[in-house]
Amino acid sequence: MIKGFKDFLMRGNVIDLAVAVVIGAAFGAIVTAFTNNLINPVVALFGGSNIHGLAVQLGSNDKTVVDFGAIITATINFVIVAAVVYFVFVLPMNKIKERRERGQEPGPSEPTDVELLKEIRDLLAASQDRGPRPGNGPKS
């Protein structure tokens, strides 16, 4: 059981995944800083002069604030991360996969069992039609 776990860890997939998580977290921090410091002020500019920007307070309690600016910011954040992941990782990997598949042509297919049996049947039938060959007949 331990050997199987060690083999799983040493395959490289886990290390690649760990690197991807660390890079994703760092990139997420960059995108969050971008949206908080650039996008949020622009969204708040269109929302009016109140402190919440594009938010509506439903009651007198601060917990009743519906913040549309935060939703817009999260959406922009998601779109930026998804676009970078697609154009930096997914698209190049699909191109590489496509090139590899294009270089591989399927070779001749192996005959099936039925095709081999038919070929053997035809060869046997052809040899019987010719009759016994000298030296291959029954011994007397």
In short:
This protein has about 140 residues and is mainly alpha-helical. The protein is about 70% helix and about 5% strand.
Structural overview:
- There is one protein chain.
- 69% of the residues lie in helices and 4% in strands.
- It has 140 residues and is mainly α.
- It has a domain at 1-91: Non-ribosomal Peptide Synthetase Peptidyl Carrier Protein, Chain A.
- Strands 1-2 form a two-stranded antiparallel sheet.
- β1 and β2 form a beta hairpin.
- The chain starts with a helix and ends in an 11-residue tail after the last helix.
Q: What is the mean predicted local confidence, pLDDT?
A: 75
**Secondary-structure element pattern, one letter each:** HHEEHH
Enumerate how many helices there are, as a single number: 4
The N- to C-terminal Cα distance equals 68 Å
What is the CATH C-level name of the domain at 1-91? Mainly Alpha
CATH third-level topology of the domain at 1-91: Non-ribosomal Peptide Synthetase Peptidyl Carrier Protein, Chain A
Helix content: 55-70%
Classification by helices and strands: mainly alpha
Instruction: Specify the CATH architecture of the domain at 1-91.
Output: Orthogonal Bundle
| CATH superfamily label of the domain at 1-91 | Large-conductance mechanosensitive channel, MscL, domain 1
Would you report the number of β strands? Answer: 2
**Sheet bearing the most strands, described?**
2 strands, antiparallel
Low-confidence stretches: none
What is the 3D form?
Answer: elongated
What radius of gyration results from the CA coordinates?
Answer: 35 Å
**What portion of residues belong to β-strands?**
under 5%
Strand order of the largest sheet: 1-2
